[in-house]
Amino acid sequence: MAVNSDSVVSVFNALFSEPYKTRLLGGATEPFYEHVPGGIHQIHFRADYVSSALHEVAHWCIAGGTRRQIDDYGYFYVSQRNQDQQHQFQMVERRPQAL
User: Is the whole model's pTM more than 0.90, yes or no?
Assistant: First the structure.
């Protein structure tokens, strides 16, 4: 059975939408976690890419309750990174990549 982004979204939302007030949504130009106080939080992943959906879910799992109360879990991503910024980025990405 082939896995597609719709199946990842369906399973995630069925399991976590109600207890964690969080929904997984595809179609974004950039991934982003949106904390919505008193509402349904949203994990946006790129286009319809299964790998992006799974990667963003990994970030959500690792973030934990405190970081989930901050947009994008409190991380700031610089697109044009110098060597030091690239190292910091890789340190943040190491755990989600492993998961």
Answer: no
